[in-house]
């Protein structure tokens, strides 16, 4: 009483056409959404592994460039856009002040555009004053994000010779102006006297 189809014979070996190396529907966005949970568990999932997984699951050959774009797209879906994160820096500062009273965060903007930020948590101030030596190590590294920039850090040494984070800063470029700006806040936060007798400052150079 209804329309139906009956399969009487089936040949499981298909060799009548050649699979194309690229398909319009198999884009980096499709890969990102298809393996979103996998990217969330392993944000550093490698390009070669992504390509191999696509070949195993779909018998489809993709490129390493498409795999790279898929990872970037998936991480953006999971974490949000970088522009949206910068727009919420004031909310981040308010939350730090609420959960860590006594912390110090300085955000420098120019015409409502982010320039640099320095942060020193209250626990770091108290811990450094209570059990760290009078030595501060300074270093900077590149931020591997779409907008770039540099991360500056001030690190101490505790009584067990273990590194102790004091403060960090995000700046556009590592130069004398930004280092002075960052260090002025660090010295003020941990209450280093103007005459730094007995204090040692060591840079990566």
From TrEMBL:
Residue ranges annotated for the MULE transposase domain, each copy included: 136-187
UniProt cross-references to InterPro entries, sorted A to Z: MULE_transposase_dom
Coiled-coil stretches noted in the UniProt entry, renumbered to this chain: none
Superkingdom to which the source organism belongs: Eukaryota
Name the record gives this protein: MULE transposase domain-containing protein
Lineage: Eukaryota, Viridiplantae, Streptophyta, Embryophyta, Tracheophyta
């Amino acid at each position: 009483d209804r329309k139906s189809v009956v399969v009487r014979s089936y040949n499981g070996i298909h060799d009548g056409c050649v699979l194309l190396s690229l398909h319009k529907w198999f884009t980096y966005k499709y890969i990102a959404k298809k393996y979103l949970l996998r990217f969330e568990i392993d944000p550093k999932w490698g390009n070669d592994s992504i390509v191999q997984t696509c070949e195993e699951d779909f018998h489809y050959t993709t490129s390493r460039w498409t795999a790279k774009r898929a990872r970037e797209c998936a991480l953006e879906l999971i974490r949000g856009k970088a522009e949206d994160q910068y727009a919420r820096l004031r909310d981040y500062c308010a939350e730090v002040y609420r959960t860590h009273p006594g912390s110090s965060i300085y955000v420098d903007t120019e015409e409502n555009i982010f320039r640099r930020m320095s942060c020193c948590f209250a626990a770091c101030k108290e811990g450094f004053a209570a059990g760290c030596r009078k030595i501060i190590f300074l270093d900077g590294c590149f931020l591997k994000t779409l907008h770039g920039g540099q991360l500056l850090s001030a690190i101490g040494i505790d009584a067990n010779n273990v590194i102790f984070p004091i403060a960090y800063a995000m700046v556009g470029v590592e130069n004398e102006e930004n280092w002075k700006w960052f260090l002025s806040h660090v010295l003020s936060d941990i209450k280093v006297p103007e005459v730094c007798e007995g204090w040692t400052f060591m840079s990566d150079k």
